């Protein structure tokens, strides 16, 4: 009985006093942030290596609240999950969709925004490619970045379409303009952003997405203390208007 009690106490002591990322981040004075840098308006890496975007500004806000510096960990949509599981980052940010496959291996913060998948097409085709039935045809050329939820959506709902996968997410939009491809399926937020910057492109029915989606920040699985801190920081950022100010300022300046 004494041996069993000792084992039980050791087990619970390990759980209670296991170090949280909150502690390690403050000890190291560094917040490691995984981000793709190819998903405007959330995250984008410039030619000089600097990052910008809504979630880049929010990452800096989180780091400031902790009194630490940000370390950017460049990843891709294809390698986001493996990089995260390696423990290379304390949080992943940059327009990340909450999906059950990711929920199996990680925690998520409280929801940041509601989003969903819609077609982005040349405006001349805005009535031609509005529905899954219209797009899911062998003659329709689709282009998507490798990995991530856009590719997964196409494989699930548009298996008959002629799909090309790209390693360069930011090059896709000009390829649509240049008539190399007909359709990109992406989140309404990205589609609307690109529509403003490419007058030839139209976001199709952004208020009526083909698939419901949520955006949040990805966190290490099981670390309740770290999740609680991030959730409270995010709650205060929204309640005080800081989050909305970041959105307005970033979009207005670009």
Q: Would you give an account of this structure?
A:
It is a single chain. By secondary structure, the protein is an alpha/beta fold. Helices cover 41% and strands 24% of the residues. The protein is built from eleven helices and 14 strands. The chain has helices at residues 2-17, 21-28, 54-66, 80-85, 100-103, 132-135, 148-157, 172-177, 188-197, 224-239, 242-253, and strands at 30-35, 38-39, 43-45, 51-52, 69-74, 91-92, 106-108, 113-122, 141-145, 162-166, 183-187, 201-203, 211-215, 218-220. Strands 8, 11, 12 and 13 form a four-stranded antiparallel sheet that branches. It has a three-stranded parallel sheet with strand order 5-1-6. The longest helix is centred in the N-terminal third of the chain and has 16 residues, at 2-17. It is elongated. Residues 1-17 have low confidence and may be disordered.
Brief digest:
This protein is of the alpha/beta class.
Protein topology:
Elements lengths: L1 H16 L3 H8 L1 E6 L2 E2 L3 E3 L5 E2 L1 H13 L2 E6 L5 H6 L5 E2 L7 H4 L2 E3 L4 E10 L9 H4 L5 E5 L2 H10 L4 E5 L5 H6 L5 E5 H10 L3 E3 L7 E5 L2 E3 L3 H16 L2 H12 L1
Parallel strand pairs: 1-5, 1-6, 9-10
Antiparallel strand pairs: 2-3, 3-4, 7-14, 8-11, 8-12, 8-13
Give a quick account of the main beta sheet: strands, pairing sense, barrel closure.
4 strands, antiparallel
User: Could you say which overall geometry the principal axes of the C-alpha atoms support?
Assistant: elongated
Number of helices: 11
The proportion of residues in beta strands is 15-25%
Given the helix and strand composition, which structural class is it?
alpha/beta
Terminal Cα span: 68 Å
Order of helices and strands: HHEEEEHEHEHEEHEHEHEHEEEHH
């Amino acid at each position: 009985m004494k041996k069993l009690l000792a084992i039980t106490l050791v087990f619970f002591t390990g759980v209670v006093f296991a170090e949280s990322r909150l502690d390690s981040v403050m000890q190291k004075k560094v917040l490691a942030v995984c981000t793709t840098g190819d998903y405007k308006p959330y995250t984008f890496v410039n030619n000089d290596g600097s990052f910008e975007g809504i979630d880049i500004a929010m990452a800096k806000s989180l780091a400031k609240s902790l009194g630490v510096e940000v370390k950017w960990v460049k990843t891709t949509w294809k390698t986001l999950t493996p990089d995260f599981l390696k423990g290379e980052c304390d949080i992943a940010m940059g327009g990340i969709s909450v999906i059950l496959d990711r929920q199996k291996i990680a925690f998520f913060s409280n929801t940041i925004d509601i989003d969903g998948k819609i077609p982005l097409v040349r405006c001349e085709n805005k009535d031609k490619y509005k529905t899954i039935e219209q797009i899911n045809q062998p003659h329709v050329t689709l282009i998507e970045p490798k990995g991530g939820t856009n590719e997964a959506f196409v494989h699930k709902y548009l298996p008959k379409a002629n799909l090309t996968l790209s390693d360069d997410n930011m090059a896709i939009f000009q390829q649509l303009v240049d008539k190399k491809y007909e359709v990109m399926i992406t989140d309404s937020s990205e589609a609307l952003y690109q529509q403003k910057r490419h007058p030839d492109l139209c976001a199709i029915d952004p208020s009526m997405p083909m698939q419901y989606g949520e955006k949040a920040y990805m966190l290490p699985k099981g670390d309740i203390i770290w999740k609680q801190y991030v959730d409270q920081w995010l709650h205060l950022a929204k309640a005080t208007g800081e989050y909305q100010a970041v959105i307005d300022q970033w979009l207005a300046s670009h």
